[in-house]
Amino acid sequence: MKDVQNRKTMNVAFLVYDQVEVLDLNGPLDVFVKANAVYPGSYHCYTVGKTKEPVYAEANTMAIIPTYDLQTCPKPDMIVVPGANPEHIMKYLQDQDFQETVLKWVKNQHDSGTVVFTVCTGCMLLSKTGILNGHNITTHSMLLDALEQHNPESTVRRGVRYVDEGQLITTAGITAGIDAALYLIGKQNGQQTVDTIVELFEYQQAVK
């Protein structure tokens, strides 16, 4: 187990937006919350929206009220970018306001050293930001071809659960976000912490 007593609490911001996929968001979120229960003070987890107005999850099944908006949130050490249905993702790529506010904020944070962790189609959402350029990346199998077409300066990896490029982590579809979050917890807090979380989840981990 790694000693985390003298380590700074990591601010982990979870981006929320209209039609966000619930498991993309809540799977990794719960991993970090459980890790914080094992090692209190390790992570400060919060949601961030364009504004503090409610956003609606996939199929309008629930409203999510962001903890912070882009102007008031604490400086994140990591931003988790969950995905959405491919149809919505492609619309967001053409949404100039979303690009110039939400995704510009993600880009600015990344440029200042923040780690960006995309889940599922969240990777595709970043196609116009430049964050993906020059990196190995992946996404849900349904969008691998499109990801390749939109990101000619990147190398799209197929048949993997997640790709760690240091300041950029991307994952395959939906549940792969849980696997990548567990992997990151292992890097930061050790395998024993991961084993404890997996036991609490009663989760069958997939291989990388």
Automatic annotation (TrEMBL):
Domain of life: Bacteria
Stored Gene3D superfamilies: 3.40.50.880
Organism: Chryseobacterium vrystaatense
DJ-1/PfpI domain boundaries: 11-184
Designated name of the protein: Thiamine biosynthesis protein ThiJ
Short name of any one Pfam family annotated for the protein: DJ-1_PfpI
PANTHER family: ARAC-FAMILY TRANSCRIPTIONAL REGULATOR, DJ-1_PFPI DOMAIN-CONTAINING PROTEIN
